[in-house]
Write a structure and sequence with these properties.
- The protein is of the alpha/beta class.
- Among the domains are: 175 residues, Isoleucyl-tRNA Synthetase, Domain 1, CATH 1.10.730; 234 residues, Alpha-Beta Complex (Isoleucyl-tRNA Synthetase, domain 2); 73 residues, 2-Layer Sandwich (hypothetical protein PF0899 fold), CATH 3.30.2320.20.
- The chain has 28 helices and 35 strands.
- Helix 4 crosses helix 5.
Length: 955
């Protein structure tokens, strides 16, 4: 019987589809992992190994995940999986931040929208009821976010996550606060803090965003009443400020002792201006020209005055003589030296309102100046503020933008008093609330602080930073600069939802009660009932016998939510609820904004209570922008939703984007970038598919020992050893984009475009027992297993799919495997150098054949049998190499000598010239090579042997 040659070719066969169908595949794999108990099996497999603990920074449970969440959690998952497969016990417990303004604000929206539970304000309902609403809201979103995180392929202890609102967590948070109370670090003080008049609470730096804002600016004249120099008699000191609303709180003027000032006379003033001809003003010498321009007046310098000579000068407030002042501004305004005064803008003088600025407050305290209270929590002036009582310092206009409505009143009042020199507008970066998006003010309020100095917290934190690894390294300098200059930690908030500052203040002394027994009772109650116990229990429950509750004031302020999250190391890593965890964490990983957020608060909390950082290393990633480098916003229509990407293209596409991005800087994403990721994914998938197909029917009996492998196969294994070294270095450095680029290049270029092409003929057409075919399949088997394992942390779904296609199992998983330990013998740099040169020669031949194909003189390279004229060095290089196989031609001839001038060459490849001659003979219908040995209608000798072997096996 005649055998059809085509039926005897070993074509690749696999059920691994070319089209991934990830949106349908991935949920099935998630169900499988849940069914086989993958997380628990990972823990059992890793029991006794060295631990690697990536402690999860808690996201807020208040909405669907955004692309930044996806980046963060996928990167964490990649690192955890990588460490697990490198032989560590990499335990990952996810968590959520549940307290604080973001969640409370959502509940308040119900009341602001028209009432809930019959109330139109949260203040109209019981606080415990309101807190329970917040708790239920957070719990609902935890469930939603958990599913969204799992859909991204994140392997974690999802059945036992941590949250900051459990009884256990709240009891440990208050216990941690108690440590600061008992060692004297926690104190109550009145200081200017960033305050939201919309949310009516203090905010931490980590809750602040900076946006452009238009402010009214004023130049104000302070009449001198007590001059330090005769020349200052009757003069006016000019200040410039962007916050006219702070003028009622002015109590001093700051100058630079090392600067030079000028006494100037107004020689000309426009009729519409506020300057008066003949009046004398004091301003910084270097800014005279600028002030003249700003005011529209002509100024003549009368005298130059060293800044230090201004000491002792006293002015009166510019509103002292306002008809409605009624003595409200009848106080001295001294000139004080300040090292924070600058010379780049303004007048060289800074108006000091100690209740509205950090520098102002410190300067006022240093000179025993009373700190006035001028602005109420809602942003209106107190009733005792002369001229402006009840007016608002901030309001939202009809256009949605915020402005200071009192600014016009201040300008009018100053103008009436003759103390305004000029006014204008400026657009500048200004602090805003990250929740309400409203501008903030500095407001002096009684708050609870943790001292940076009382127990040496600042020094401890800086020392801890020196012992911490930062990736990128500049992160240490960034957070270090913040620690060096930061004020005491304001930990109190005027809110309802969170852990209360469970402290009693003795009314007689005004000091907090520092009693370990009282704090122990609070901790015990919180552990049993949660922090609601502070609101539902009588004070006597905590104060104990021997103390009269009437002698104490119970504090109901709420702890800064950053203190909550700063304590997660205590109630997650140390509490014993997760026995597999340990303290300190190996790694904290969040966005770069957390240098002033979670990294910062965790550092301070841990250094204050344990003397060191709660982490050994800190990794930061950038923010996600659109393809044009813009911040994502709904108004721009450039938001990329992770849920939409997953539903349309699959989570592995997002994971591929993370793996291939340099996350040390800001990242970009959008339709075109995702399209590129899909193309890269397709090439990687096709590599796996080809390997699976080529291994159809492969058994261990086919394997060829390493020492018997041809050079080409040993070169492939050398490349694997190089990549393995890169993988381990990338895992150590937490930097994967370079590795992934090399891995993709290996699959697309080294394998698909070279090795697979070269060995395709042997795989398809050699006999089953051919040493060359067996060697190739031996390496293919190693390649597939190695690539599946290497890709598993990155493309967790696709790697699992390919692994199961090769190793069918009811309960197996590539994620239970370790990265392979590749033999040292695979590394052969000399062999790699030789094959790099051979591929250069191949490049010349390919170029010559491409030119022939373009001229339509050949179709397939198998129609050619090129003549290579080479140097003696190249001849030695190619000795023993099957040239036709490497060039994918039917034949090839090599000679040393002088090349035909018309031969094809490449300038960068010396000693190689190619004449692309046609192959002689007939085309073999089985292997398609054109060979002289092929008779009409027949096959070549090799194919004849292969067909005979197939026929013999069939019989």
């Amino acid at each position: 019987m005649t055998v059809d040659p085509k039926t005897t070719v070993f074509l690749p066969r696999t059920e691994f589809p070319m089209k991934a169908g990830l949106p349908a595949l991935e949920p099935r794999l998630l169900e499988r992992w849940a069914r086989i108990g993958l997380f628990d099996r990972l823990r059992a497999t890793a029991k006794g190994r060295e631990k690697f603990i990536l402690h999860d920074g808690p996201p807020y449970a208040n909405g669907h995940l955004h692309i930044g969440h996806a980046l963060n959690k996928i990167l964490k998952d990649v690192i955890v999986r990588t460490r697990q497969m490198l032989g560590k016990d990499a335990v990952y417990v996810p968590g959520w931040d549940c307290h604080g303004l973001p969640i409370e604000w959502k509940i308040e929206e119900k009341y602001r929208a028209g009432g809930a539970n019959g109330a139109k304000s949260k203040d109209e309902i019981d606080i415990v009821t309101f807190r329970e609403e917040c708790r239920q809201f957070a719990a609902g979103w935890i469930g939603i976010q958990r599913e969204e995180f799992q859909r991204l392929g994140i392997t974690a202890d999802w059945t036992h996550p941590y949250t900051t609102m459990t009884n256990r967590a709240e009891s440990i948070i208050v216990a941690e606060l108690g440590k600061f109370l008992l060692d004297g670090s926690l104190y109550k003080g009145a200081k200017p803090v960033l305050w939201s008049v919309v949310e009516k609470t203090a905010l931490a730096e980590a809750e602040v965003e900076y946006h452009d804002h238009t402010s009214i600016t004023i130049w104000v004249k302070f009449p001198v009443v007590t001059p330090s120099l005769p020349a200052l008699e009757g003069a006016k000191v000019v200040i410039w400020t962007t916050t006219p609303w702070t003028m009622p709180g002015n109590r001093a003027i700051a100058y630079g002792a090392d600067f030079e000032y000028a006494l100037v006379e107004v020689t000309e003033a426009p009729a519409s201006g506020l300057a008066q001809v003949g009046e004398r003003l004091v301003i910084l010498a270097d800014l005279v020209e600028q002030v003249a321009k700003d005011s529209g007046a002509a100024l003549r310098v009368i005298e130059r005055i060293p800044g230090a000579r201004l000491a002792g000068t006293i002015c009166h407030h510019p509103l002292k003589h306002h008809p409605e002042a009624k003595g409200g501004y009848d106080f001295a305004v001294p000139l004080l030296a300040g090292d924070f005064v600058t010379t780049d803008t303004g007048t060289g003088f800074v108006h000091i309102a100690p209740g509205h600025g950090e520098d102002d407050w410190h300067l006022g305290k240093a000179h025993n100046i009373a700190i006035p209270d001028t602005v109420q929590p809602d942003g209106t002036y107190y009733s005792h503020v002369a001229v402006f009582a009840g007016q608002s310092v901030l309001a939202q206009g009809k256009n949605g933008k915020y402005y200071s409505p009192v600014a016009k009143a201040v300008i009018a009042a100053m103008t009436e008093c003759g103390t305004l020199l000029a006014h204008g507008k400026i657009e500048h970066s200004y602090p805003h609330s990250w929740r309400s998006k409203a501008p903030l003010i500095f407001r002096n309020t009684p708050q609870w602080f943790i001292s940076m100095e009382t127990t040496g917290l600042r020094a401890k934190a800086l020392s801890a930073l020196a012992d911490t690894r930062f990736v990128p390294a500049q992160g240490r300098n960034r957070i270090g600069a913040m620690i060096e200059s930061r004020p005491d930690w304001c930990v109190s908030r005027q809110r309802a939802w969170g852990v209360p500052i469970a402290v009693f203040v003795e009314k007689k002394s005004g000091q907090p009660l520092r009693d370990p027994a009282v704090m122990a009772r609070v901790v015990e109650a919180f552990a049993a009932e949660g922090s609601d116990a502070w609101f539902t229990s009588p004070p006597a429950r905590f104060l104990g016998e021997g103390r009269d509750p009437a002698d104490y004031e119970q504090v109901f302020d709420i702890l800064d939510v950053w203190f909550d999250s700063g304590c997660t190391h205590a109630f997650v890593l140390e509490s014993g609820d997760w026995p597999a965890l340990s303290w300190p964490a190996s790694l904290y990983l969040e966005g770069s904004d957390q240098h002033r957020g979670w990294f910062h608060s965790s550092l301070l909390e841990s250094c204050g209570t344990r003397g060191r950082a709660p982490y050994d290393a800190v990794l930061t990633h950038g923010f996600v922008l659109d393809e044009a480098g813009r911040k994502m916003s709904k108004s721009l229509g450039n938001v990329v939703s992770p849920q939409e990407v997953v539903d349309a293209q699959g989570a592995d596409i997002l994971r591929l984007w993370v793996a291939g991005s340099d996350y040390s800087d800001d990242l970009r994403i959008g339709p075109e970038i995702l399209k590129t990721q899909v193309d890269i994914y397709r090439r990687l998938r096709n590599t796996l598919r080809y390997l699976l197909g080529a291994l159809d029917g492969f058994t261990p009996a086919e394997r060829v020992p390493f020492e018997q492998l041809p050079e080409l196969e040993r070169w492939v294994l050398h490349r694997l050893s190089e990549l393995d070294q890169g993988l381990r270095a990338a895992a150590e450095d937490f930097t994967f984009h370079g590795l992934f680029a090399e891995l993709h290049n290996f699959c697309a270029v080294d394998l698909s475009a070279f090795y697979f092409d070269v060995r395709k003929d042997a795989l398809y057409c050699d006999t089953a027992e051919s040493p060359r075919r067996r060697a190739a399949r031996t390496v293919f088997d190693l390649l597939l297993d190695t690539l599946c394992k290497w890709l598993a942390p990155f493309l967790c779904f696709t790697a699992e799919e390919a692994w199961l296609a090769r190793h069918p199992s009811a309960d197996g998983s590539v994620h239970l495997e370790a990265f392979p330990d590749l033999p040292a013998s695979w590394r052969d740099d000399a062999l790699a150098a030789r094959w790099a040169k051979i591929r250069e020669v191949r490049r010349v031949v390919t170029g010559a054949l491409e030119r022939e194909r373009a001229a339509k003189r050949i179709g397939s390279a198998l129609q050619a049998s090129p003549l290579l004229t080479v140097s003696a060095e190249v001849q030695t290089l190619l000795d023993g190499v099957d040239l036709a196989e490497i060039f994918l031609t039917s034949g090839a001839e090599l000679r040393v000598g002088t090349a035909d001038p018309a031969a094809f060459t490449l300038p960068e490849v010396a000693g190689v010239a190619v004449e692309p001659r046609l192959a002689e003979g007939e085309k073999c219908p089985r292997c398609w090579k054109v060979l002289p040995e092929v008779a009409a209608g027949g096959v070549c000798a090799r194919c004849g042997s292969a067909m005979a072997a197939v026929a013999a096996e069939a019989n």
